[in-house]
């Protein structure tokens, strides 16, 4: 949402050697324009992309160095704190995150003023956040690779066991916690499943704590990803942090009831984007 992919550009003025530099420069200008709009100069809310709920009141701003990240693990927040002394961390870099008594791996999504403005809009201030331990080293990358290989092996075993045991469970994804303390299996199913024997067998093979988590079809779409009927990447997997309640009321408010058959996404639920226009009109 806050970055432009310019890898498709083919121009004589953009050589293969400076494509990355050119893309960074364009994205920097793009993000500066977004920040300028978000700052709402002179308190003119009509020019705001994300106007504050009450611009007449002073809004507290978190002064910590905070990044927005994406991670497959179960971190308590998509924002992490960078302690003083760390070298500059850029979008796209892989970092090791610490929370409570475990470590997880994550990719930096957004840095700088945009992060502060997003958090300010959502009313987030001085809450406890996971901490950035370090940028991923070569050894860390090797460990991530080993974890990925074991995730594939775990997925294969999961499918073999569920088929043998006639368990109606559709595996959506597996994730090995970076420190290998837990191995997650995300699945969908109709109703509740007694998976105690499955968990025991998986634990006996991988010698770690097994967590099987049933997710909904919208969560499945977010994890798997894909392209919607609009031709763009799914909103849920590209930029939406949380799911909102989408009802037929949103469609009727926008006079879209006559085309209800076209309003369901690949997940079978009403499209998340129905809430976008509704919010703009209020």
**Residues in helix, %:** 25-40%
What distance separates the N and C termini?
22 Å
Q: Order of SSEs, N→C?
A: HEEEEHEHEEHEHHHH
Uncertain residue segments: 52-57
What profile does the largest beta sheet have? 5 strands, antiparallel
**Major sheet: order of its strands?**
2-1-4-3-5
How would you sum up this structure in a few lines?
With 282 residues, this protein is of the alpha+beta class.
Structure characteristics:
282 residues; alpha+beta; 4 domains; five-stranded antiparallel sheet; three-stranded mixed sheet; 17% strand
Provide an overview of this structure.
This protein has about 280 residues and is α+β, with helices and mostly antiparallel strands. It folds into four domains: about 1-60, no CATH class; about 60-135, no CATH class; about 140-215, GMP Synthetase, Chain A, domain 3; about 220-280, no CATH class. It contains eight helices and eight strands. It has helices at about 20-40, 115-120, 140-165, 195-205, 215-225, 235-240, 250-255, 275-280, and strands at about 65-70, 80, 95-100, 100-110, 130-135, 170-175, 180-190, 210-215. A five-stranded antiparallel beta sheet has the order 2-1-4-3-5, with helices on one face. A three-stranded mixed beta sheet has the order 6-7-8, with helices on both faces. Helix 4 (about 195-205) links the parallel strand 7 (about 180-190) and strand 8. Helix 3 (about 140-165) packs antiparallel against helix 4. It is globular. The two termini are about 20 Å apart. About 15% of the residues are buried. Mean pLDDT is about 80; it is low at about 50-55.
């Amino acid at each position: 949402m806050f970055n432009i992919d310019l890898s498709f550009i083919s121009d004589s003025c953009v050589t293969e050697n400076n494509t990355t530099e050119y893309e960074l420069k364009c994205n920097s200008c793009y993000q500066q324009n977004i920040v300028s709009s978000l700052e709402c100069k002179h308190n003119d809310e009509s020019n705001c992309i994300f106007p504050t709920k009450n611009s007449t009141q002073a809004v507290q701003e978190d002064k910590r160095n905070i990044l927005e990240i994406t991670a497959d693990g179960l971190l308590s927040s998509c924002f992490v704190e960078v302690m003083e002394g760390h070298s500059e961390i850029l979008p796209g870099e892989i970092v090791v995150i610490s929370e409570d008594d475990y470590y997880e791996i994550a990719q930096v999504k957004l840095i700088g003023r945009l992060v502060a403005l997003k958090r300010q809009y959502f009313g987030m201030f001085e809450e406890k956040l996971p901490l950035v331990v370090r940028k991923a080293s070569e050894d860390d990358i090797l460990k991530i690779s080993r974890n990925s290989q074991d995730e594939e092996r775990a997925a294969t075993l999961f499918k073999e066991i569920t088929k043998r045991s006639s368990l109606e469970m559709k595996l959506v994804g597996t994730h090995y916690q970076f420190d290998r303390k837990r191995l997650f299996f995300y699945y969908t199913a109709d109703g509740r499943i007694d998976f105690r024997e499955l968990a025991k067998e998986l634990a006996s093979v991988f010698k770690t704590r097994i967590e099987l988590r049933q997710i909904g079809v919208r969560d499945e779409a977010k994890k798997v990803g894909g392209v919607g009927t609009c031709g763009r990447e799914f909103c849920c997997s590209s930029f939406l942090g949380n799911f909102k309640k989408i009802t037929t009321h949103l469609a009727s408010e926008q006079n879209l009831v006559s085309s209800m058959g076209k309003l369901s996404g690949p997940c079978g639920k009403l499209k998340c984007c129905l809430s976008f226009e509704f919010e703009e009109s209020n």
